[in-house]
C-alpha cells in the first residue's frame, strides 16, 4: 500500500515574514496526518521551515540542486548541503527548470544520483508541453524523460511527479482520466524496467491542483498524491488538499 504524499512547491515566492506565517498556518492546520506532507521553499527559507516544522510531521525539501557534490560551481547548492540543513527530499527536473534553465534529461538523471548519494529522496518531474500533447507525443516525451532517469536504477523511495507543462500555473488541470491514463503509462513503464520498485514508487500529479479538484484526482488508482504550486501558498487551501488525500 503506497502512502499518499502531498508536496508543496513554493517556487520563488515569499519573504521571511510571509514564510513564517505560512509555516505557522500549516503546522496548526495539519495535525497528525495519514498523508505524508512536505514543503519545498526557496533555499534561503529552508532553515526557517526546518525549525518551524521540527515537532510536526511535515518534511522539508529543496526545489533543485547541483549534480556535483562540491567544487567551483558558483551559485550552486549541493544535495549534501541540503541534507546538512535538514532537507529530506529535492524536487528535480521541474518544467520551469527545464524551460528557463535549460536542464536536460541527462542532467536531471545526474542530479537524481547526487540526491541519492546525499541520502535524500528525489521527486522527479516529468511531463509534456501542450504542443507535444497536441502532436500525440505525450507518452513518447514522458518515456524519454523516464528512460534518462534509468541511468541509475530507480529506488522504491523515489517519487515521480507527472506535471503536464500546460497545466502548471495555468488553472487548467488534466482531467482525472487524462492524469490516470498517463500515471498508468508511467507505472507500466516502470514495471518493464524496475519491476520490484514499480508498485512502491509514488506517482504524484501536479498542475493546478486545488482543494476543489483534489479528491477526484486522488480517487484515481495510480495517483498517489500531488505536487502543488500556487495552492500551497495558502495554508487553508493546502490543508484542504491534504484532507482530500486522507
Ligand atoms: C508546480 O509548480 O509544480 C505546480 C504544479 O504548480 P501549480 O500547482 O501552480 O500548477
UniProtKB/TrEMBL annotation:
Signal peptide: none annotated. It is an enzyme of class 5 (isomerase). Keywords: Cytoplasm, Gluconeogenesis, Glycolysis, Isomerase. CDD domains: TIM (cd00311). Pathway: Carbohydrate metabolism; erythritol degradation; Carbohydrate biosynthesis; gluconeogenesis; Carbohydrate degradation; glycolysis; D-glyceraldehyde 3-phosphate from glycerone phosphate: step 1/1. It is found in: Cytoplasm. It catalyses: D-glyceraldehyde 3-phosphate = dihydroxyacetone phosphate. The active site is at 94 (electrophile), 163 (proton acceptor). Coiled coil: none annotated. SUPFAM superfamilies: Triosephosphate isomerase (TIM). This is Triosephosphate isomerase. The lineage of its organism: Bacteria, Pseudomonadati, Pseudomonadota, Gammaproteobacteria, Cellvibrionales. The gene is tpiA.
Amino acid at each position: 500500500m503506497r502512502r499518499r504524499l502531498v508536496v508543496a512547491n513554493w517556487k520563488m515566492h515569499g519573504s521571511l515574514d510571509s514564510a513564517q506565517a505560512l509555516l505557522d498556518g500549516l503546522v496548526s492546520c495539519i495535525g497528525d496526518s495519514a498523508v505524508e506532507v512536505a514543503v519545498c521553499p526557496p533555499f534561503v527559507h529552508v532553515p526557517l521551515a526546518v525549525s518551524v516544522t521540527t515537532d510536526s510531521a511535515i518534511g522539508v525539501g529543496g526545489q533543485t540542486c547541483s549534480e556535483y557534490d562540491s567544487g567551483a560551481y558558483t551559485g550552486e547548492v549541493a544535495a549534501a548541503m541540503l541534507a546538512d540543513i535538514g532537507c529530506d527530499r529535492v524536487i528535480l527536473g521541474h518544467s520551469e527548470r527545464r524551460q528557463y534553465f535549460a536542464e536536460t534529461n541527462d542532467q536531471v538523471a545526474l542530479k537524481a544520483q547526487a540526491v541519492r548519494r546525499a541520502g535524500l529522496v528525489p521527486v522527479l518531474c516529468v511531463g509534456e508541453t501542450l504542443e507535444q500533447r497536441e502532436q500525440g507525443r505525450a507518452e513518447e516525451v514522458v518515456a524519454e524523460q523516464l528512460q534518462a532517469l534509468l541511468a541509475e536504477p530507480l529506488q522504491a523511495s523515489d517519487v515521480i511527479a507527472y506535471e503536464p507543462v500546460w497545466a502548471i500555473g495555468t488553472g487548467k488541470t488534466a482531467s482525472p482520466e487524462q492524469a490516470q491514463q498517463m500515471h498508468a503509462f508511467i507505472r507500466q513503464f516502470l514495471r518493464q524496467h524496475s519491476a520490484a520498485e514499480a508498485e512502491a514508487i509514488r506517482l504524484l500529479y501536479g498542475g493546478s491542483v486545488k482543494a476543489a479538484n483534489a479528491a477526484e484526482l486522488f480517487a484515481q488508482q495510480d495517483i498517489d498524491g500531488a505536487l502543488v504550486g500556487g495552492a500551497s501558498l495558502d495554508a487553508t487551501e493546502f490543508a484542504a488538499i491534504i484532507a482530500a488525500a486522507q
